[in-house]
Amino acid sequence: MQDHYGHDIPAGPGPWNSLADIVAANEAIGNFWFSDDTLEFFRCIYGGKLGGVIGGRFFVTGERGPHQSRHFYSVRVANDDGSISTLGEFQDYSTPGAARKAAVEAAEQLLAEALADPGVCGLCGLRTPAPGATACSTCA
Ligand SMILES: [Zn+2]
User: Fold this and answer.
1) What is the whole-number distance in angstroms between the Cα of residue 10 and the centre of ligand 1?
2) Residue 37 C-alpha to ligand 1 middle, in angstroms?
3) Burial of residue 110 (number of CB atoms within 10 Å: 0-12, 13-18, 19+)
4) Closest Cα partner for 137 from 121, 113, 125?
5) How many angstroms separate the alpha carbon of residue 63 from the centre of ligand 1?
6) Where in the sequence is the domain holding 66, given as residue range(s)?
7) Total of domains in the chain
8) Distance between Cα 13 and ligand 1 center (Å)
9) Residue 80 CA to ligand 1 centre (angstroms)
10) Rounded to the nearest whole angstrom, what is the distance from the C-alpha of residue 71 to the centroid of ligand 1?
C-alpha cells in the first residue's frame, strides 16, 4: 500500500499507540505538522469525536479551507519516523465516519498483507516466527 505521495506503507500494524505518541514523535523530528499555526490555517481538527489511532498507523483529521463552509475529512498516515502523510486524497470524505471506515479498511489490508508473508507471525502480524513455525514465540 502506498500513501498519497507514492511512499510505501509497511505491512502489518503500525507502531503508534496514541495520538499523543504521534504528536510527540512528529515534534521530536522537528516537524510542525501539529503546531497551532499549521492547524489553524486549515482549521484542522483531530482526536475527540474523530477518534484515535487506527491500526497503530492511521488517524482522521477534519479540515475547513478558507472558502469552505464546513469541514471535510482526511485519512492521515503516521510514518515510523514520526512524519505525517495522507492516504488517498486530502479532504476525501464528507463525514468522520466515512474517513474512519476507510482507515479501518486500510489497516485491515496492511494486516492481511503481513499475515500473507511467511516471514511474519500469523497471529499478531508483528514479529518473526522461528524457522518452520507460523507464530512468533510470544503468540505461540
Ligand atoms: Zn505473534
Assistant:
1) 17
2) 41
3) buried
4) 121
5) 37
6) 1-140
7) 1
8) 12
9) 20
10) 39
60-106 pLDDT per residue, tens: 999 998 899 999 999 999 999 999 999 999 999 999 999 999 999 99
Q: d(Cα 8, Cα 101) in Å, to the nearest integer?
A: 21
120 CA distance to ligand 1 centroid (A)?
8
C-alpha cell at 44: 484542522
Q: What is the pLDDT of residues 104-118, one digit of tens each?
A: 999 999 999 888 887
Cα(1) to ligand 1 centroid in Å equals 22
One-letter identity of residue 71: H
